[in-house]
Amino acid sequence: MNWKGHLLASGAVAAAFMGATAHAQTRSQSNVIEELVVTAEKREQSLQDVPVAISAFTSEKRDLLGVNTITDLTNFTPGLEYNAQNDRNTLRGVGRNTNVHAAEGSVAQYSDGIYTSSTTEAGKTPLFVDRIEVLRGPQGTLYGRNSIGGAINIISKRPTEDWYAEARAQYQNYNMSVLEGAVSGPTLIPGVQFRFGANWTKQTEGWFKNTVPGMPDEGNIIDTKYVEGQLKFKFNDHLDGWMKLAWQDWHNDGGGPGSRNSWTPFQFPTYEAVTAGLVPTAGYACRTGTGVTNIQVPAGMTLAQACHNGALDGAHKFTSDVPYQVKLTGTMIFASEFTYHFDKFDVKYVGGGTHYHYFLTGPTPVDQAPILSYTLPRVLPPGAIPGTTTTTVIPGAGPTVRPRYAFNYQEQENWYSHELNIASTDDGPLQWIGGLYYYDEDYNQPVYTTLVDAQGLGLNLSNAVCTNTGGLCPALPGNNRIYDDRPHLEITSKAVFGQIDWKFAPQFKTTLGLRYTEDHKFGQESLRLLCYDVQACGVSPELLGQNFYIDLTQRGAGVVSYGTAGSLPPGVSSTTTVDPANGFATRHYDNKWSSTTGTAGIQWDPEPGTMAYARYSRGYKAGGFRIGIDTTIGASPNTNPEHADAFEIGLKKDFGRTFQANIAAFYYKYKNAQIPITIAETSGGVAQANSIFYNIPEAVSQGIELESIWQPIDHLQILFNYSYLDAHVTKALGVVDKADPTALAPGAKPITPLAACTTNPVGAPSSCDVFTGYTQRGQDLSGNNLPNAPKNKLAVNVNYTVEMNAGSLIGSLNYVWRDKQYGSIFNRSYYQSPSYDQWDARLSWKDRDNRYTVIAFVKNIFNDVGYEGGADANRRAGFIQGYTLGQTGATGGARVPVVEGVASTYPITPPRTYGIELQYRFF
Hints:
Layout: H1 3-22, E1 37-38, E2 45-46, E3 53-58, H2 59-65, H3 70-75, E4 80-83, E5 88-91, E6 94-95, E7 107-111, E8 114-116, E9 129-136, E10 150-156, E11 164-172, E12 176-186, E13 192-203, E14 209-210, E15 222-234, E16 239-252, E17 262-263, E18 274-275, E19 279-280, E20 293-296, H4 303-306, E21 317-318, E22 325-341, E23 345-363, E24 373-375, E25 378-380, E26 392-394, E27 400-401, E28 405-424, E29 430-444, E30 447-451, H5 454-466, E31 481-505, E32 508-529, E33 560-562, E34 576-578, E35 585-607, E36 610-621, E37 624-625, E38 638-639, E39 642-655, E40 659-679, E41 690-710, E42 716-731, E43 733-735, E44 768-769, E45 774-775, E46 779-780, E47 792-803, E48 807-818, E49 821-822, E50 832-833, E51 836-847, E52 852-859, E53 872-879, E54 897-907, E55 913-921
Parallel strand pairs: 7-10, 14-21
Antiparallel strand pairs: 1-2, 3-9, 4-5, 5-6, 7-8, 9-10, 11-12, 11-55, 12-13, 13-15, 15-16, 16-22, 17-54, 18-19, 20-24, 22-23, 23-28, 24-27, 25-26, 28-29, 28-30, 29-31, 30-31, 31-32, 32-35, 33-34, 34-35, 35-36, 36-39, 37-38, 39-40, 40-41, 41-42, 42-47, 43-46, 44-45, 47-48, 48-51, 49-50, 51-52, ...
Domain TonB-dependent receptor plug: 47-151
Domain TonB-dependent receptor-like beta-barrel: 401-861
Signal peptide: 1-24
C-alpha cells in the first residue's frame, strides 16, 4: 500500500470511529442493515440463511459502489478475477485459461437460468440487471454444468404491475457516452405485463495511444447496442410465465472483449524474417548487419522510431500498423420461465438460448514493428559464382518482403438449454428440489492469419513450396492466408439432479444433493498451414501434429490419408486426410465424459441472526479438445475432465442491527486442472509451433474470506472485504516453460541435469534448443501458484448520506488493493503482475420524490497502473544471418540462432476515467 493509500485509509477510518463515538446514542431504524433476498438455491431466501459463500449485488448497490463492469465486480467479490480482453474468469484459483470452446470455463454463468459461455452478460448496466449473485465454490448439484469453480447468476429486472419508465444518460472522458431507457407496465391483456429497454454505448477516444502516424488509437473504442423486450404472464392462480427476447450488436474499433488491453514494456524483437517457418517478421529489418535494404516505414516515422516500441514511454501507449476490430452481429438471446403451482410444490420449466456471430481482427504479433517492406539479400553457396569458395551475400538482390501480418478470429455459435424442475413450497421441515437438464451447442470457430499486403504471399510463397516438390502442390489461396484453421464441434450435456434440506431439529438443518452429468463432444477440424520462404517449406506446408509431416511428393493422385485407425490418440475418431486440391488436412473428434457430483452439509442456527455451516461439495468440468485458435492439429488434442473435492465452513452473523459479517474458510483438492501449454520453439522448424492441453495432476486451493457491513451511526456505512487465497500446484512434473525451455532462469526447478545438444537439424523436431545449445528440460511445478490467483485482496467502501429537505446527497469512496499474481503455472518474474491499489469516488444527489438522480464519479483517481490478471511471456528468439531461398535456387547461407530475451505482456486496467450520469424516472 503506497503513501496515498495510507493517507486516505487513515482519514476514512478515523472519521468512521469519531462518528461512531460522537453519535453512538443516535442510532435508529434508518441504520439497520437491509435484508437481501437471493435465489442461489433456486428458491427465494435471505442471503444470511443460505449455507453457501455468496456475494450479491443489487442494482442499487452497484450504483452506490460504481460497479459498472465485470472488473469492478471482482473488486468486491472475494476470490474472483476477470480478464476483459479474453473474457476469462477465475474463482478461488479455478477458472478459464483458454478461449477454446471445446474446453469451456470452470465458472458457470447463468443469465435468467440459461447457461452462457461468456461472462459479458454480467456487465450489463443496473438498468437491466436486478441482481448478480456470485456463488463461490463448486455448485455441483443445482448449477452442475462446468460449475467446478462456482457460478455467476444474473437476474434481469422484470416487468412491473404498475407503470414505470426511466431514462439514463452518462458522459465521461475519452468521449464516452451512454444512453439508455426502459419502460414497463400492464398491457391491454389482463394478467400480462411488459418491459422494454434499450442501451447505446459509444466511445470514440481510446485509452491506448498509437504512436504510428495515421493509425487509430485503441482501448475501449466501442459502439454497442442492446435492446430487450419482456412479457410476464399470469394465466390463472396456478400458471404463470415470463419470456425475454434480446438483440445485441457490437461494431467496435479497438474495443470490447478480445481487443487491446495489454502492455508489453519492451522493445520490438529483432529476429529473422521467419519465426518457426511461419511469420515474416518486421523485426528482422531493425537489426543491422543482415544485408537488408530498401526498408520502408509509415509516413511520418523514422526507422529508429519504427524499431522502438512506443509502449516504453508509458503503459497506455503502443505501436501498431494493423488495427484491432471487434464485431458481434446477428445476436439474439431468448429466455423463458413457466411455473405451475400445485398446493405444496411447483413445477417449473426454464428454457432458452443464444445465437451470435463474433468477429475479431488484429495484429500478429501484437507488438510487431511497423515496417512496410524491405528487401532481403541473395545468398549464394560456394561455387555459385565461378571462383568463389565461400558463401556470397548480395544485398538488395533477394525478394522484397512485405511483413504486415494479421489474424482473423470468429465464433459462430448456437446454444440452447432446457431445465425442468419440481420444488417443494410448503413450510414443513423437509424441503426438496429435483430436475432434468439438457444443453446443446454447435459452433464454428474459424481462425486464420494473413499477409495483409498481397505481394508478400504471391512473390515468395509459391516458389518456396513448389520448387522442391516437382510442382505437385495445392493451389495457393487467393486470400493470402498462411494459417487457416476451421474447427466445428457439437456439444451436448444431460443431467438429472436432486437436493433435500431437512430441518431435523429446531436449530439444525442438513442438506444432501446429487447430480449425474453426461457430456458429449464431437466434430471435425480442417487446417491448412503454409510456410514462408524457409527450407522446411519444401517438405511441410501442412502440419498434422508434433513429429509428423506431409510429403508433398505424394500429391496429385487423390486424397492422402495418414494415421492408423487402431492406434489413434484419445479423442481423435478418424485418420487424418489431406485433400490435394486445396491442401486442407482434416480429422474428426469424439469423446464422452460423465460424473456424479453433489453436496452434503449441515447448518446450525443457534439464535436469530446467526448461522453456521459446514459443507462438502464435489465439482466437475467435462474434458475437451485443444483445437482451433492457435493450434496446428496437435498430436494429443484430448484433455481429461477436472474434479474438485471442496470442504467449506462458514459463519453468517448479525451483531445487533448495525454490523454484519460473513466468513468462509475452504479447502479444495483439485485434480486435472486444464492448462494450455505452448510447446517452445527450439529448432526453428514448423513442428514446434503447437499448443496442447496439460492436466495438472494435483493442486490445492485453500483460504479464508470475509465480507462485512458496519453502520455505526445514522447514514454512515462501511463495507470491508478481505480474502486470503493459497491456490497452488502440489504435483506436476516434466512441463517445459515456453519462455525458458532449457530451465535456465532463476527459480526454475528442472528435473534433469543440464545437457548440451548433440544434433538438431533445422526443420526437424528435437528436444534440442539450438538457441541456447542445451536440451529442453521439464520442471517440477510443485508449490507454484495457479494462474490468476492473488494471495490477498482487500476492498473498502465508505459511504455517507446527508439528508436535506430537497433530497439526499451520498458520498462514496472505494479503496481496492490486490496482491501480485502470475499468468502461468510457472512462477517466474516474467509471468508476474505486481500488486496494485486503486481509489474511486462517487457523489450522488437524489431528490426527495426519487424522480431524478445525478451522479458524478471518478475511477482510478491517481491514474495508477493496475493489473486484471497475471502476465504472459514469450521468449524472443530467431536467426540473424543468411537465407536459404527456394525461389532463387540458392542452397547456402548461414543461420545463426540468437535469443533476444523474454518479453512480458500485462493485462492492465483502465486509466483514470471520470464523468457524470443523470437518471430520470417518469413514473
